Amino acid sequence: MRRKxxxxxxxxxxxxxxxxxxxxxxxxxxxKSGEITSINEVMEGKLPLxxxxxxxxxxxxxxxxxxxFKKTTKVRRSGRQFSFRATVLIGDxxxxxxxxxxxxxxxxxxxxxxxxKAKLNLIKVRKGCGSWECTCGTNHSIPFKxxxxxxxxxxxxxxxxxxxxxxxGNNIKEVFDFVGIKDIWSKTRGATDTKLNFIRATIDxxxxxxxxxxxxxxxxxVSK
Length: 224
Known about the structure:
Helix 2 packs parallel to helix 4. The protein has two domains: 2-124, Double Stranded RNA Binding Domain, CATH 3.30.160; 146-223, 2-Layer Sandwich (Ribosomal Protein S5, domain 2), CATH 3.30.230. The chain has helices spanning 2-13, 26-33, 39-44, 52-58, 107-120, 173-177, 195-211, 216-223; strands spanning 63-76, 79-91, 96-104, 123-124, 146-150, 153-159, 166-167, 184-189. Strand 2 and strand 3 (96-104) form a beta hairpin. The termini are far apart. The chain has a four-stranded antiparallel beta sheet with strand order 1-2-3-4. Strands 5-6-8-7 form a four-stranded mixed beta sheet. The protein is of the alpha+beta class.
């Protein structure tokens, strides 16, 4: 009986053989034809990212890690229904990071669903040397202070001088690892023991490094 269960789990873990990608969106067709050749063009363009295969096509070497996994229960008239909830973090250890959550009755389909959603939620993070104590000019931290929020959790990230390290909670160190940030300070408020909200608030803050307008002084420092 145990062998049967192990065999079934191995089959579920194995990714199904994917047929050749046939794009269904305008953005997908432009990527497949070679009109768009970089992920930066996708991020800066106005067309919505609706196909995870676009990321696979342009970014085949993204790293992924499951950061949260839970078994959930729903009580209905027919009885209890069990399912799995997986949360996956993806990144290139340089500029891009994404997070996605997927639910399914089986474990590995939930993980694959979360990975697909993470690819569709991919964001670009602007790095820099924004600390007034550091003038190295390398992209080891963030260019300015940003704040992110998710649920009751609020995370404030501040640029730190070179050599400081990751002065953050253990739950979010892997987030900075996935974008190659080596030095940063943080302040947190709320229920930071809720790991998923903590991670999402941090990614929300990192996303504001590209959406927030920089002052002329900071822009000159980052562009050096």
